[in-house]
Every structure is written in C-alpha cells, then in structure tokens.
Design a protein that fits this description.
The complex is a heterodimer.
Chain A: H1 3-28, H2 40-76, H3 86-108, H4 114-119, H5 127-133, H6 144-182, H7 189-229, H8 232-237, E1 241-242, E2 250-251, H9 254-285, H10 288-302, H11 306-329, H12 338-363, H13 366-374, H14 379-408, H15 411-417, H16 434-442, H17 451-485
Antiparallel strand pairs in A: 1-2
Chain B: H1 5-15, E1 18-27, E2 30-40, E3 45-49, H2 56-62, E4 73-81, E5 84-85, H3 93-99, E6 100-103, H4 114-125, H5 131-144, H6 148-151, H7 164-176, E7 182-186, H8 194-207, E8 212-216, H9 220-226, E9 229-234, E10 237-243, H10 244-249, H11 254-260
Parallel strand pairs in B: 3-8, 3-9, 6-7, 7-8
Antiparallel strand pairs in B: 1-2, 1-4, 4-5, 9-10
Helix pairs in contact in B: 4-5, 4-7, 5-7, 7-8
The complex binds adenosine-5'-triphosphate and magnesium ion.
C-alpha cells in the first residue's frame, strides 16, 4: 500500500467519523439541537480531529524515524568488515540504500522473485548489471557484505512499511471510537475542538522555531568541523581570501565581509533616499488616479527575479560605468564593480523600501496631519516634522529589512561585482561578497570534508550572526521609538 | 433681534470678528452646507449645536480653510475675518491657520515631547528669536491652558504619555502658543471624562477674554455653560442663531425647540 493510499484511508475514516459524531450527538438528544452543549458540527469536528491528527502525526514520525533505525540495524551486518571510518561508512550506507531500492524495483516489476533475491549473491550474480536494469547506477563493484546488508535493509524497510500501515490505521480507528464514545449531551465539543486547534497552531509554530534551530545547529556543527581543520585566527582576521585545491589555503573572511558591506552600503545609499522620497510622494502628494497606477508599477519591480537584475548589471550598467567613469577617470577597467552591483541592487530594493514605507506613512493617523495643518504648517513642514517622526520606527525597520536583503543577495553580486575577493576602497573595482563565496566553495570540486568546502558553513554562520544582530538592533530601535510615541 | 439693516451693517465691521455670507459647501455632489449666514463676535464663545451629520464640523472647518485639505470639498460664498475675505486667492491658508487655531475632537498631540508640542507652532512661524523667548512662550501657553503645574517637571516626556484630558489641554496650549485670534474647537470634550471636561470648560471660559472661540458640541448643557451665543444647524442649514440664553429659553424655530427639548437628534 502506498503512502498516498494510507493517507486517503485516514482521511476517509476521519470524514466518516465526523459524520458519525454529528449523528450520534443529534441522536443523543432526539434531534433537538438546543439540548446540546455545542453545535452538532462541533461534535463532528472533534471526531475528525481525533481520528486524523494522531494518525497523521504518527505517519510523519514513522517516516522520519524509521530510516534512522533501519540504517542502524542493517549497518550492524557490516560490522567486522574493514570499515571503521565514519565517512567511509556513510558512503557504503548510501550504496546499501540504493541497492535495496533497486531490488525493490526489480521485485515490483516481476523480474526477480523473492527466492531469486534471497539466492542472489554479490560474488556470483552480476549485481551491477541487474541494478542498471532497475535504473540504479553503481560506481564500484558491490562486495558481498554490502549486498547482504542491502538485502537486510530491504527486508527491514518492507516490514517497517507494513507495520506503519497497521499502526496508523489502528491509531485512526482508535481515535475515532474513543472520541465517539466521549460524545454526550453535555460534552463540550466546541471547547475541545477549540483547544485542539490551539494545540495544532502551537505545534505549527514550534515546527517553524525548531527548524530555525535545526538550521543553526547544522551550521554550527559544520563550522565546528571547519575550525578543527583551519585556524580561527586566519578565518576571522586574515586579510587574504585564497582557497587552494591542495590545502594550505588562506581563508580570511575580512575581504568578503568588506565586499558585502561595501556593496550593501552602496545599494542602500541608492535605495533608501529614492525609495523614501517615492513613498512620501505616493502617500502624501500623489492624486488617487496617479497612485493607483504608480504604486502597482513600482511593486511590479519587486517581482522581477534577481537574476534578471543581474543580467541588467552585466550587460548594461557594468559596461556603462566602465566606459564613462572607470576608464576616463583612470580608476579601473573592469565592468564588474562594487558600484555596478550596488546600483543595480539599489534599484532592486527601491520598491521594497518604498512600498513598506508607503504603508507605514499611510498608517500615521490623519488627525496628526490635521493638527499640524490646523497650526498653520505647510505640507512639507507637516511631513518633515510630524508625519516622518511618527513613521520613523517603521521606516527604520523597513531600511534594516532592506539591509538584510542586500546582505543576503547573491545573483546580482556575481554578475555585477564579480568573484574576486579584495579589500579595497575603489568602488569601480571588482569585489565579492560572502554569499557568492558560499556558493562557489560549496559547488567546487574539492571533497566535502576539506576546509575549503566547510568554510562555506563558517561563512554562512557569520552572515547569520550579522543579520541576527541587525534584526535585534532594528527591533530595539523600533521598540524604543514606540515607547516614546505611544 | 429687531435691529435695523443699517445698524447691522455698521456693527458688522465694528463688532464682528467673523462674517460669513451665503456660504455653500459641497463634498463632490453632496451639498453639505446650504447658504449659511452668520456673524461671530470677538472675545466671546459661540457654540454650534445640531444633530449628527448636519454640517457643524464642515462649517467650522471653512473658518480656517481646513476643508482645503479634502480633495473633493468645494466652498462657495464669502467669509471674512476682520473684514478680510479669507477665500481671496491672495490669502495664504497657512498664514490664516496661524491666526485661526483649531482643536480637534480627539486629542492629537504630536509624537514629540510636551515642550516640543507647544514649541512647534512658534518654531514653524518663527515667532521667537531666542531659546529663552521660546521657553517663555511654552510656559505661558501651558499656564494659560491650565496644564503647567501638572507637566512643568516633565516637559521632556512624550506628549502622548499624558491622560486624555491633559492631552486635550496640551492641544489647546499648542494652539494658543501661536497667539491666534480665533480658536475653533470641534467637540473638544467628547473624548474626556466629566472632570477633565469641567477643566476644559473652565479653561474655555478664561480664554474668552482674549480669544474668539467657536465650539462645536453635542452637549446642550455644555453649550449653555460655556457659550454666549449659540447657532443651531439642521441638515446643512443654519436654522437659528442668537444669544445662548434666548436660544435655550425661547427658541424661535420649531426645529430648534424640538432639538433642545430632546425630541430628535
Ligand atoms: N470628507 C468628507 N467627504 C464626503 N462627505 C463628507 C466629508 N465630511 C463630511 N461629509 C458629509 O457632510 C455632512 C456634514 O458632515 P459634518 O462632519 O460636518 O457633520 P457634523 O455636524 O460635524 O456631525 P457630527 O456631529 O457627527 O460630527 C455629512 O452628511 C457627511 O456625510
Ligand atoms: Mg463633527
């Protein structure tokens, strides 16, 4: 039975339960709704929830935990072989899983029977060829031990599947009957379904929080591995970024951080004034028809994928700046430059800044404007001295959000500023940022467990810490202003 | 009431602070104020009363051209203050509003300190030359608004941190600080409790000696307590205007009578 079918069964059971719950509730009071504590629908809801949710949770947990357990058990059959190393073990287990899947495919399409499989031996039957038939490409020849482990793995998986189906359906049915028996005239179905909903909502937010922790944890873990292989002093204080294939790399983060902040700074320098002025025009001066055209147009800009902006940087802005500024001024002759990436990123951020600020300015109560006009302020005085201060916390928040986006941006930088890590002040020179290097280190040819690859995690973690800091500062500022203004 | 036309005209210039003639206000197609004529006397309190939606606020806002800030609003007719037509194209509404201050229904202090709230008007109009002068204006205005003793030790704190009644008095201080000649108040007490209301009413009574005050109110008692003259509006028309005592004890129009005796509204 496939997973889809299993889920379908659970849902059908839950719907049947809901109908039965409703019936039963009405039946208990002879069809008189008023005698029930809650609406009949609530009783149905409760049964539905108690049937479906525990069963679905069980399915999820099982799908998540069972492979871990099966891995552990089937790898036991490999013990005693020459595999002592963790990494080698991981590689072999990958093979084991692939072979197991291949066997499953072969048995499903009938080309192998169960007895064939149990008699199949790695050293006699040509496993690689058979696997290729099933669409599983194996690199090296398969050792007998690995093949045995794969068979064990397959057995365990199949058993686990059957057990899961039984358990899930059992839980669903148990939930259904248990909740049905709880229905009585005075059963507070509405409160129960309300509480259940709250629990589900909490669980959902927990998932979000836990994934964040999971992400951070995995970053921290790989970063730790990196620092076991590479000196932290070089990483944090090194002025040179020069990864080598054969080790001995210099992996100083400073040139990358510098590039990140330089490009983001240029972008914000460009985006914040323009975005803010556009927002002020939009919110305070534009007539209704103007606004209804201009605002969606501006927001359309926000929908353009950043790679398109990158192309714009690569073919238009870059060469333009090179031909008309960099070369005539003798400041360089590369079309990739901090300024190129900064300006294009700034263009990308304008709608971001302006549409957030526009909403914030609009949220400033009209009564404040009236108050200022009533005292004889002009429009611009009102905006500068009353509306903007009132909107400031929100605007600071918008700018910091834009800053986070700028720091995290990758595509525009690759295509606009280049990939050369450099510490320099000249804005017409190529530079690069942390995000670009994360991508290039992870997609390189070096093996995973080398400092050259793992440094990507350290970079990622650093970036994470920086943006976290930025957000904390933003929140602090916003809160401080809010206290003052409320 | 039976004054001859000639006399009325003479009195116009000598005694009336504000003279409105044939004022019409339209919101788009809607005719909100219909042919209103009224004279408002200096250094007195005039109350506008009438059922909700009858146009009291609209008419009040024509007196300092606050309706200019509403796109769809159109004003016709003639309103003059001290004999000068305020709808003359040469008149700068910004200047006008410095002369005709306004206090709104909901207290709307700026998100600034108490001091800055009061100093705002003098600053934008350049009324003071030195910091000391500005300090003087701020404290004098707060004193006139009866708020000084409550806030003198916390002038740096946010104006929005005050209680509703204090906020409203702060708004009055803010309006006084630009030394207007006329103060318009649109239901200044409707968001306040009885004690705060009493304070504001007391204040209005004191301000009367120096300012011309026009107040919109829904409370008949308030109109009776604070005003010398009362104008009753109904469906965009000015039905009746006269000495407060006359309006309340001896209304000439059936509609006024119905309203003040609580038969509709
Ligand atoms: N900004 C506006 N746009 C369109 N119509 C308006 C606007 N302001 C007021 N009106 C209309 O003008 C009429 C008079 O409104 P106004 O606010 O002057 O009444 P009011 O007497 O002050 O009422 P209330 O006592 O409820 O404050 C109402 O019918 C109202 O719907
Ligand atoms: Mg009103």
């Amino acid at each position: 039975m496939s997973l889809g079918a299993l889920l379908l069964i659970v849902i059908v059971l839950a719907i049947l339960g809901a109908v039965a719950g409703r019936r039963r509730a009405l039946g208990l009071v002879g069809g008189d709704k008023r005698a029930l504590h809650s609406l009949p629908g609530h009783y149905g809801q409760v049964v539905f929830l108690f049937t479906a949710v525990p069963a679905l949770v069980l399915t999820g947990l099982w799908l998540f935990l069972a492979p871990l357990l099966i891995d552990r058990m089937s790898s036991e059959s490999l013990v005693g072989s020459s595999l002592t190393d963790d990494t080698a073990m991981t590689l072999v287990m990958t093979d084991v899983r692939r072979i197991a899947r291949g066997l499953e495919v072969l048995s499903a399409n009938g080309s192998l029977s169960e007895s064939d499989i149990s008699q199949m031996r790695a050293d006699f039957s040509n496993v690689r060829v058979r696997m290729a038939e099933a669409g599983v490409a194996l690199g090296a020849d398969v050792g007998p031990q690995v093949f045995e482990a794969a068979k064990v793995y397959r057995d365990y998986s199949n058993t686990s599947r059957v057990l899961m189906n039984i358990a899930v359906i059992a839980v669903a049915i148990a939930g259904l009957f248990w909740s049905l028996t709880r229905i009585s005239k005075d059963y507070r179905a509405r409160n129960a379904s309300e509480k259940f909903t709250v629990v589900m909502l909490i669980a959902a937010s927990l998932v979000a929080v836990l994934t964040t922790f999971g992400i951070v944890f995995s970053l921290v873990f790989e970063t730790y591995n990196f620092f076991r292989m590479h000196s932290a002093a070089d990483f944090f204080f090194g002025l040179v970024w020069n990864p080598q294939f054969r080790g001995g790399s210099e992996l100083g983060i400073l040139p990358l951080l510098w590039g990140t902040f330089y490009v983001s700074f240029v972008a914000l320098l460009f985006a914040v004034p323009i975005g803010l002025l556009a927002a002020i025009y939009m919110a305070e001066y534009a007539s209704k028809p103007m606004r209804s055209v201009a605002k969606p147009l501006l927001e359309l800009l926000a929908g353009i994928p950043t790679i398109v902006y990158g192309l714009f940087a690569l073919i238009t802005v870059g060469p333009f700046l090179r031909d008309y500024f960099a070369q005539p001024l003798g400041l360089g002759n590369s079309s990739s430059s901090v300024l190129t990436a900064g300006i294009v990123m700034g263009i990308m951020l304008i709608p971001f800044v302006s549409s957030l600020s526009d909403d914030i300015i609009n949220a400033v109560p009209q009564s404040l404007r009236d108050g200022a006009y009533g005292l004889g302020s002009t429009r611009s005085e009102t905006i500068r001295q009353v509306v903007m201060p009132a909107a400031l916390p929100g605007i600071v928040g918008a700018v910091l959000l834009a800053a986070s986006r700028a720091i995290g941006e990758t595509m525009i930088v690759v295509m606009g500023a280049g990939a050369a890590a450099k510490l320099g002040l000249n804005p017409l020179e190529a530079m690069t940022t942390v995000t670009v290097k994360i991508v290039s280190q992870l997609t390189g040819d070096t093996e995973f467990a080398s400092p050259e690859t793992l440094v990507a995690f350290a970079l990622g973690l650093t970036l994470f810490v920086f943006t976290l800091g930025l957000n904390i500062v933003a929140l602090y500022i916003v809160r401080k202003y809010r206290e003052q203004y409320e | 009431m039976n004054v001859s036309v000639n006399l009325e005209n003479d009195v116009d210039l000598a005694q009336h602070k504000i003279v409105a003639k044939n004022v019409q206000v339209y919101y788009g197609e809607k005719h909100a104020i219909k042919d209103v004529n009224i004279n408002i006397q200096p250094c007195s309190v005039t109350a506008f009363i009438g059922p909700s939606g009858c146009g009291k606020s609209t008419f009040l806002r024509t007196l300092n051209r606050m309706n200019d800030t509403i796109d769809i609003c159109r004003v016709e007719g003639n309103i003059s203050i001290d004999g000068e037509n305020i709808y003359d194209p040469r008149v700068d509404p910004v200047q006008l509003r410095a002369k005709v201050g306004m206090v709104f229904q909901k207290p709307n202090p700026f998100p600034k300190s108490i001091y800055e709230n009061v100093a705002y008007g003098p600053r934008i109009h350049g009324l003071t030359r030195t910091k000391a002068e500005l300090d003087e204006v701020v404290s004098a205005s707060l004193q006139k608004a009866g708020l000084w003793n409550e806030v003198k030790d916390r002038l740096d704190e946010g104006g929005t941190g005050l209680s509703g009644g204090q906020q409203q008095r702060l708004c009055i201080a803010r309006a006084i600080a630009v030394s207007p000649e006329v103060i318009l108040m649109d239901e200044p007490c409707s968001a306040l409790d009885p004690i705060a209301t009493a304070k504001v009413e007391e204040l209005i009574d004191e301000l009367r000696s120096n300012y011309t005050i026009v107040i919109v109110t829904h409370s008949m008692q308030q109109a009776a307590r604070v005003s010398q003259r009362t104008a009753f509006f109904h469906l965009g028309n000015l039905v009746e205007e006269g000495a407060t005592q006359d309006i309340f004890t001896n209304p000439q129009d059936k509609r006024t009578q119905d309203y003040i005796t609580g038969r509709f509204g």
